[in-house]
Request: fold
Amino acid sequence: MRMTYILPGLVLVGALILSSVFIVDERKKALVLQFGQVKQVVSEPGLGFKIPLIQEVVFYEDRILGLPTQPIEVTPADDRRLVVDAFARWRITNLVEFREAVGPGGEDQARARLDRIINAAIREVLGSVPSQRVLSEDRTALMNQIRDLARREAASLGVEVIDVRLTRTDLPDQNLEATFARMRAERQREAADEIGRGNEAAQRVRATADREVVEVTSEASKQAEVIRGEADAQRNKIYAEAFGRDPEFFAFTRSLTSYERALQAGNTSMVMEPDSEFFDYLRSEAAPKPAPAPAP
Reply:
């Protein structure tokens, strides 16, 4: 009979003992709360103990957390609107202050609060400098200013802002098209200038080539006329020497050449007298005697 009461009692005691033990992971920190009040802070990994049914344990991240902010529009000192978003890295440093600041919302509530703090810091820092400095590649000083300002504001939450990085700094969508149109016009103007310079250079090259062609052609024609004149002189010299050696044979060959050229097939007609000297070699078997050559 007593065993009937002992077993449930042992089970109840075991359940109470198990419910009073909790394990803290090395990536976590824990708060032991009693009716909403902080009774114990556990920052080291291992086993912890609490009063069952009265106390509860709330775990928080001990690692560095990331926070991508929502894109916002800022107006730098030169009144040129920009769309900016950032990425922050933060961690919980004081669990008690963190719990009192964010309440049961925990890390989600902390992210919302940090998002507003970082956006306000971005507006304040970027609003005091020209847009060219924001859009330049060297923005380390600006990001450090945003980090320091956000770190001071977030200290009351029990967190530390470790770093803030600007991930995007662009023009608003309504200004992008105008900017692209201006860039396209500038590139088209540069292309037109390059085309004009190319055409001018091409004209110079063509003019130079045409002048060289005329010069080369003129020189070749001059040399051809000189060679042709020398050849004609050589030919006349050979004819003269041949005529001087055998006038009858020379006259005979010249007559044959004339017959060959004149008596071609076709409709060519010639009207000549029968006793013309042109047919002397055709009328008789003996060749006419040519006039004696003058003495040299």
Q: What stands out?
A: The helical segments are 2-19, 95-102, 106-126, 131-135, 140-154, 173-245, 247-262, 280-283. The radius of gyration is 57 Å. The chain has a mean pLDDT of 81. The first strand starts at residue 21 and ends at 24.
